[in-house]
Amino acid sequence: MAHEFLVKDIAFQAGVSVATVDRVLNERPGVRKQTELRVHAAIRELEKQQAGVEFQGRKFGIDVVMEAPDRFTDTVRDAFESESTTFLPTIFRSRFHFAESMRPQDIAQLLDRVRLRGADGVVLKAPDVPEISAAVARLERSGIPVVTLVTDLPNAPRTAYAGADNRAAGETAAYLIGARFAGSPATVLTTLSSNRFRGEEEREIGFRRALRDRYPSVGVVEISEGLGRDDATGALVAEALSNNPGINAVYSIGGGNRAVLAAFGAAGRTCSVFVAHDLDAGNLELLRNGQIHFILHHDLKADVRTAFRAIMGRRGALAGPGAARLSAVEVITPYNIPASIR
Q1: What's the CATH architecture for 166-297?
Q2: Per-residue pLDDT tens for 203-220?
Q3: Of the candidates 270, 329, 325, the residue with the CA atom closest to the CA atom of residue 303
Q4: Which residue of 39, 53, 144, 295 sits 20 to 30 Å from the alpha carbon of 240, by its own alpha carbon?
């Protein structure tokens, strides 16, 4: 496979040793097929990042670690790739570690492997549990800055948080739903992918607080642990609808929105107002079709730039400290979809 990259750069991107890359490139035996595919995929990734242009500047290698559904990690990958040259001549090269479901101990072990191998920074979306916070602390003590993305780890000594104000997002959802019912009784189904994620918990706290203060006639039924997967989320929604005949609205915090709507349809129930998060392709289609009424959107590309800036600040590559800023939460309807996404 022809390429123009240093073996050490390929090894970094693939997450394997230099010796392994050398074996693959020279077609020597002793390498598992899966590892061989990772090396070839790493070369393709480096080609995409270079995009045919050479720049003389500092290069940062970072690891992006996320537990999230594929539809969200696809959007995140696009954001990192599009923003990788934002600070030219500085270039960011990202190695992605994505999984729809990971045990906390597996995430902690992955972070420890990154620490032992070395990196210029880590961007992390993970549950707020002690073993992951401890792994973050080990990274920071070793001099590797950690930026949490979308969901924070407030008890960990991370360098920065890049994302929106999740409590404000939940309060916004309460306003949109509560105003629709104008004081009439209603019951909202809130769907979390997992209550282990601090960002989702913050959204629900803000949602419940605003409803209690402004719309006390609106009740809440919560489901969680569907992990954003359609099958698991759909089953939880179907059970909630069966047990709660008054549910007539949805605040989707954790995704799986097609499955949520399918469960309403199978039960012959109407969802009077549906508020969701994230402008991925699936949600855009549901918004245009009128099945989702509002999407709470924040610019992931801005979050990525915040993460890059925080890492550069810790590495002494910025004049200032690279302070993080919370992303603005926008209410998106079919009539104001951002042109960059449309």
Answers
A1: 3-Layer(aba) Sandwich (3.40)
A2: 999 999 999 999 999 999
A3: 325
A4: 295
